Amino acid sequence: MTWNTEAGAGPETAVDVVVIGAGQAGLSSAYHLARAGIGHVVLDHAPRPGGAWQFRWPSLTYGKVHGMHALPGMELTGADPLRPSSEVIGEYFAAYEERFGLRVRRPVDVSAVREGEGGRLRVETSAGVWAARALINATGTWDRPFWPRYRGQETFRGRQLHTADYPGPEAFAGLRVIVVGGGTSAVQHLLEISEVAAETTWVTRRPPVFRDGSFGEAEGRAAVALVEERVRRGLPPQSVVSVTGLPLNEAVRAGLASGVLDRRPAFDRITPEGAEWADGTRVEADVILWATGFRAAVDHLAPLRLREPGGGIRIDGTRAVRDERIHLVGYGPSASTVGANRAGGAAVREIRRLLARERAGEPVPA
Q: Closest by alpha carbon to 50, among 104, 4, 114, 94?
């Protein structure tokens, strides 16, 4: 087994593969690259191991995590469900990096990936420049929170924040809070904020769909297929969770029974004091919490012109259709933790064939 032995980047450091991101997708990809004996470097802009999990709010305990699949080759066992998920998963990722010798360089910010010389990709970063034969982009979505725009939004006198900056329920004690969004984060926020807030209001664009009963392998495959179809058409991906519905567990049932999860449709505008609907109904608020999701963090790939007219990057498996040197792991259908694991292995198998063709002197079209 050959492990990455690349030294730090000078003016330009040659390497077979650059992996951008050291969350679930990036670590899975690095594991498979190492097993395949392919030289690589892993770049991560976060200050420590843990991927996006390290930024999750303290009240999101491990027992509340919506599906966490172990990384390949090492199970996560014995975790206390009452500990913050940021701590549990951060420690697990750190142990994983150490066990398999995955020498992640951090913090490193990648500013751009563009066409380089000799058919290589030029990866420009805060720690220098790498020249890579292939690239695995595993940057996820946490760095691109989505903020919708509403009329009057700039006039609101209270506080506006996004799930990405959610500090936990204590910050909302005694306040009137509007939570906007129809996903699992919005529901989790509401359930815990409602215990300390003066008042909560839930707003979604579409009526929420609650899923009662088990969610098995067949249902999972069907959900992934819906997301996969979008990226094959070059449309921006939706999360897998967005097509599975909201799990109707005991806490959610209690929230529905108490009225906490009584949902209002999207408001017409934001006022200095809160929000107003088209029928004249108003709700006063001290805080608007936008639990409105995230978008894929792929702006650094813009120089490669991978986007389709529909706004997304069209992929076949994990490979970008417009450039077979680029693989997106944790994008679209592989955005779940189990999907990221499988996609990491699939990307490395394709890269291995790509490098073999290149070394045999076959042309590798961009």
A: 94
How close are the terminal C-alpha atoms of the chain, in Å? Answer: 30
Residue 37: C-alpha distances to residues 120, 146, 297, 351 (Å)? 19, 38, 28, 12
How far apart CA 311 and CA 290 sit, in angstroms, is 23
Mean pLDDT of the chain: 89
Token code pair at residue 320? 């970008």
* 65-119 tens-digit pLDDT: 866 788 999 999 889 999 999 999 999 999 999 999 998 999 999 999 999 999 9
What tokens does 290 get?
């936008």
